[in-house]
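Input (structure):
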């Protein structure tokens, strides 16, 4: 039986178990996938912006790359002393518009990487930056993270990581 794919849209997050499959379509947004293999728990966040500094009262934690990792860990039930068991994969953070000086994609990546390091979560794989949109899919049953680069310089390109189990 093939598991239904659940979309994780902008500013949202999902905590899930096998056999669920979750995916996000990413441009400048950052996809943060976490796995806690010892407990079989997974999380995926679709982060729109790097930081909630401009709106500290905003409780949409998944929306921001600096707060999403902590919130994913909390919702996954990972105690601080077991964070080293969690594995992370990142995708997205592209700069899709030529001449854009905002650098939102790069800022999202920097914020997400910083937050994960601060929390003691090791990043196992990443496909970030450039000017290519991506689709990130996390399969809790197989532990595979698949990143499909959409119409990049080499056309559609699929990257598969077996790092979340």
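Output (sequence):
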């Amino acid at each position: 039986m093939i598991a239904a794919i659940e979309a994780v849209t902008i500013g949202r997050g999902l905590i899930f178990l096998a056999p669920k499959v979750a995916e996000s379509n990413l441009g400048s947004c950052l996809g943060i996938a976490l796995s806690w293999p010892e407990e079989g728990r997974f999380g995926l966040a679709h982060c729109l912006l790097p930081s909630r500094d401009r709106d500290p009262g905003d409780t949409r934690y998944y929306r921001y790359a600096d707060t999403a990792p902590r919130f994913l860990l909390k919702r996954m039930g990972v105690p601080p002393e077991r964070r080293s068991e969690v594995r992370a994969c990142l995708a997205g953070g592209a700069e899709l518009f030529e001449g854009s000086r905002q650098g939102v994609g790069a800022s999202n990546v920097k914020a997400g990487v910083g937050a994960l390091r601060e929390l003691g979560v090791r990043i196992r794989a990443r496909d970030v930056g450039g000017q290519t949109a991506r689709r990130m899919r996390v399969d809790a049953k197989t532990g595979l993270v698949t990143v499909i680069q959409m119409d990049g310089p080499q056309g559609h390109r699929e990257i598969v990581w077996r790092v979340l189990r």
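Notes: Strands lie at 5-7, 13-16, 21-26, 30-36, 41-47, 87-92, 122-128, 133-139, 144-152, 155-162. The longest strand covers residues 144-152.
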